[in-house]
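RETRY 2/3 - previous attempt timed out on the joint model. Re-submitting the same 478-residue input unchanged.
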Amino acid sequence: MSALTRDANPPLTKSVEDYLKVIYHLSSQGGFATTSDIAGMLEVAPPSVSGMVKRLSDTGLIEHVPYRGVQLTAQGRREALRMIRRHRILELFLTQQLGYDWDGVHAEAERLEHAVSDGLIERMANALGQPQYDPHGDPIPTAAGEIEETELMPLADAPVGAKLELRQVGTQDAARLRYLADQGLTPGVLLVVSDRQPFNGPTTIALAPSGDPRIVGRDLAQLLWCREVPVEDRGRPAT
Amino acid sequence: MSALTRDANPPLTKSVEDYLKVIYHLSSQGGFATTSDIAGMLEVAPPSVSGMVKRLSDTGLIEHVPYRGVQLTAQGRREALRMIRRHRILELFLTQQLGYDWDGVHAEAERLEHAVSDGLIERMANALGQPQYDPHGDPIPTAAGEIEETELMPLADAPVGAKLELRQVGTQDAARLRYLADQGLTPGVLLVVSDRQPFNGPTTIALAPSGDPRIVGRDLAQLLWCREVPVEDRGRPAT
DNA sequence: TCAGTTTATTAGTGTAAGCTAACACGTCTT
DNA sequence: AAGACGTGTTAGCTTACACTAATAAACTGA
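RETRY 2/3 succeeded.
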């Protein structure tokens, strides 16, 4: 050992932060994040993931079951949520204070989230009034590491006639986001599923209360996460 | 060679950006930046500098005369000024839009300057009204890479009776900056040198037109860069 | 001018993180 | 139950950038 005592809590590197974030996303609906899924999301080769997995489980951020996958430990989850908070606050700040479009913020936030201090994030959060959702409708974890768990369903799964509020848009793809914004499909809008044709085909929806109908392909409808409109909200203008 | 053609213009790394910045500062008043000065400013060991100097001159960003020092090439100077623009715009944005004190912005800007895109910097610059000076009074290079060269003298060198405008504060030390702000010694204030005692001793100045006298030690006075007040500005309120 | 000091460079090592090629494990199918 | 295939892991290499120890060049003072 070259140094007498190896640094007990070295600061997380940019790479580590990225790995924790994608492992969080991949393992959020249950189970394990697999090596190849991680590799796919980070656009690195699978052996690179194996190497990092070794380091992350050595430092206690993840739990690794060989040939099965990884899960975050409590500490890993804390760090992941911290990064997600940073990312989402940054996205909101860039759109609200600096005129970014919701399809352009992702890349910028992706780089900034590794460089900002916690203090700066909290200043931004204050300037934005301690917001709960980012521009895509995703919930922003609190500084304490709590995140809202909502029961949402993809528009693709909603029955004809359902009245829904669009809550989250599950993509960061700029072209798709631009298209959705054009169609008025942004978090908060009220929707009525008016038709679905032929079998498992495109979904026709109407913007409620009085908007024009839209036709959305099945793949897109899979990305539009909605909740049923609570009775007391029906027909009220957005506050 | 593993790749057929090695990437002709790889993006600058954070380290490279830092080296270019300090070489710019060290060589701005004439000559060469020496290995040990660079090492001192970056807080790395001299051999690390030798290694980096090799790489930087291989890629044409600096000119190296062994055992003498280095200078920026035109391209290196462009990159250095780009980083300085980023840094100073960030400092101004953080102080003006997010309530940072002028003694706290430096560290934050230091990390952010490597992560922001040029587009974000220009948005910030617009939000700030295309400013010319950062919170410490240092000129902000233009996006095209021009920087204002001003003739300033340290307060320490000013004769008794001189009427001066404080233009720049040549330190990033938080404690000193806090002290100066307390004393009302920020860029733009008008000063009159009222005394200097005994020989080469502390400088007594008065805040013009009617302020209280301040006593400033010689070391501090060395950091307060002033210009003589042009006649047409005398006594006019700051615009 | 020459020895001694200061400063710069070279040599060799370490760590983080990527890669390709080769090998191992699990699962799925017949 | 046995291959065959896909996915995961190991081995070994590369680049960027730091470090220490050893060496070389340049300066300086008697």
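Chain B touches chain A at residues 94, 97-100, 107-108, 111-112, 114-117, 119-120, 123-124, 127 (CB under 8 Å). Closing ticket.
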